[in-house]
UniProtKB/TrEMBL annotation:
InterPro entries: P-loop_NTPase. Keywords: Membrane, Transmembrane, Transmembrane helix. Signal peptide: none annotated. It comes from Potamilus streckersoni. This is Uncharacterized protein. The chain crosses the membrane at residues 247-265, 271-289. CDD domains: Ras_like_GTPase. The keyword DNA repair does not apply.
Length: 290
């Protein structure tokens, strides 16, 4: 999750955690200060109290992007590729490098970011500085090249409407919210269908179905995009492996034959035949797993 400070990134983690534990929880620190409450890159796992089992997804929280502060563009690219470990503390003046301890040099699919969620406070869109929009659009360009999907969370929608007891089941009928969705869509070039208005749990004491429904709709869209990305990556990797296997297989056979031919000149034929089998199998195993 990426976005300006005080947008509600950490609060969304708390909201999802509250829904699945069936009570209000504030595990991730959220704040209203002028600087980001989150200083580190954090990966949050969730567990359902109804089943007692861990849920098969995680949400990753980052520090807020500011005009002069926040994650460096280098950090963000490494973040997308899965090079940054859980608990890494962002330092704009000193971005992470491959020489730093903890840097993940060969990230697998599970370390990579499967979907980026941009989070915005819907009530303060007009006050977001242009340099922040520029940073986010630069990141979007990198994401597009990597084929990483994106979703937008529009938070604090309760502060966007004039009604005191607003019915969140009619959120998509609200003019103020519609205008905010249109603005984010235009600024980032993202489809309005991928902009999800929500309200996080903040000062509530009990869970509410209307708040839960909006958050779960947003989560459902995120997980759908993430699942598609993972399937595409696996399919691409499988296709590449099949393409590489045939020529390498031929090379392995030729190399084995040459070695056996040379050995047969200086030693017993049976020994040479055994050696060729070992060489071919060894090379095939190497090709299969690299």
């Amino acid at each position: 999750m990426i976005g300006p400070i005080q947008a509600g990134k950490s609060s969304f983690c708390n909201t999802i955690n509250s829904i699945f534990t069936d009570r209000i929880i504030h595990r991730s620190v959220s704040g209203n200060a002028k600087s980001s409450a989150t200083k580190e890159y954090r990966q949050f796992q969730f567990r359902s109290t109804k089943t007692g089992k861990a849920l098969k997804f995680c949400l990753c929280d980052t520090c807020g992007i500011e005009e002069r502060f926040g994650p460096d563009s280098t950090d963000l690219v490494y973040l997308l590729d899965g090079n940054i470990p859980d608990g890494y503390e962002f330092n704009p003046s000193s971005p992470i490098t491959p020489e730093d301890s903890g840097f993940i040099h060969r990230p697998g699919l599970k370390e990579m970011v499967h979907c980026v969620v941009f989070v915005f406070d819907g009530s303060t869109l007009e006050r977001i500085p242009q340099p922040v929009w520029d940073k986010l659009n630069h990141l979007l360009l990198r994401m597009n090249k990597k084929g990483i999907p994106r979703v937008v969370l529009l938070t604090k929608i309760d502060e966007m409407v004039k009604e005191v007891d607003y019915n969140f089941s009619r959120v998509y009928e609200c003019t103020e919210i519609k205008l905010a969705v249109e603005k984010v869509s235009q600024m980032l070039g993202i489809s309005e269908n991928d902009v999800m208005p929500i309200k996080n749990y903040e000062d509530e004491v009990l869970l509410k179905d209307t708040i839960d429904n909006l958050a779960l709709m947003a989560l459902h869209k995120m997980l759908g995009f993430a699942h598609e990305f993972a399937l595409n990556r696996l399919a691409t990797k499988d296709t590449r492996r099949r393409r590489e296997l045939d020529p390498n297989f031929v090379i392995a056979i030729i190399a084995g034959v040459i070695v056996a031919a040379l050995l047969s000149m200086i030693t017993d034929v049976k020994i040479a035949f055994a050696i060729i089998i070992v060489v071919v199998f060894a090379m095939l195993i190497y090709i299969q797993y690299n």
